[in-house]
Design goal:
Length: 254
């Protein structure tokens, strides 16, 4: 049995979101300041630039974390590499080599609590039940997920265009029932959610944070002709076709 004081019961800490095994906590103010830094910290807090942490309740679900993200844990917690076999290690190494994700994502299970390193980025929780139980993430956004979700690679439809556009060839996809936590430079209330029904979305740049796996994702010229692309001033764009959702940032801060 364990008791934790002056953490979730601290009046300077608020829970901003809670889904599945995860809680997102935010420090309203940074009190560990000096006279020379107090002014900057005050205005940063007023603009919403605040430290945030992800708290994982293992009694609800086992979790998989981005490598190196754990800060502390309490209670009955067992950690493993999440590697089940030599073939599994090869598959995860291949996935890591073509994305910005780590090859080994540790898995934690038990009945205790795991708290991740604080970050000034925004922590976004997504329930895959709203995404038809399958979602694709832009590289670098994965922070944690419930262990029930399966991780796999998905490739761009037209590899030659992806290479020409300077985009990666593969992305991390998650499937199943559960919640995933993203670490984003853009706040959740600024992310634009677009729902397609047998339609298409064209984005000039890597502004998409996540999208439904059922969407066909390609990299194409902004118009059908080279002359038209030159006239529009745009080159290659990311195209999403079909039925599903896209979560898009208004600015690219990666």
């Amino acid at each position: 049995m364990y008791r934790i004081h002056n953490f979730l019961d601290n009046d300077d800490i608020i829970v901003t979101d809670e889904q599945g095994a995860f809680k997102v906590v935010e420090y309203k103010r940074d009190l560990s300041v000096t006279k020379s830094t107090a002014q900057n910290e005050y205005f940063a807090s007023q603009m919403g630039v605040r430290l945030k942490q992800l708290v994982c309740d293992l009694s609800t679900s086992s979790v998989v974390l981005q490598q190196g993200s754990m800060q502390w844990m309490a209670g009955d917690v067992n950690a493993s590499t999440g590697i089940k076999s030599a073939g599994d290690f090869f598959s995860k190494s291949l996935r890591a080599s073509v994305t910005n994700e780590s090859a080994i994502k540790p898995e934690y299970n038990g009945t205790g609590m795991v708290v991740l390193e604080p970050t000034y980025k925004y922590i976004i929780l997504l329930d895959l039940s709203r995404w038809n139980n399958s979602i694709v993430l832009e590289d670098g956004y994965f922070l944690a997920s419930e262990a029930s979700l399966k991780h796999k690679l998905v490739s761009r439809t037209n590899i030659s265009s992806a290479l020409a556009g300077g985009e990666g060839l593969f992305n991390l996809a998650l499937e199943g029932n559960g919640v995933v936590a993203l670490e984003s430079p853009v706040a959740r209330n600024e992310l634009i959610e677009i729902e397609l029904e047998n339609d298409e979305l064209r984005i000039d740049g890597s502004f998409a944070v996540a999208w439904s796996s059922g969407l066909k994702f390609t990299v194409e010229r902004s118009t059908k002709s080279l002359i038209g692309s030159a006239a529009s001033g745009e080159g290659l764009v990311n195209v999403y076709r079909g039925t599903g959702r896209i979560l898009m940032a208004p600015v690219n801060l990666k």
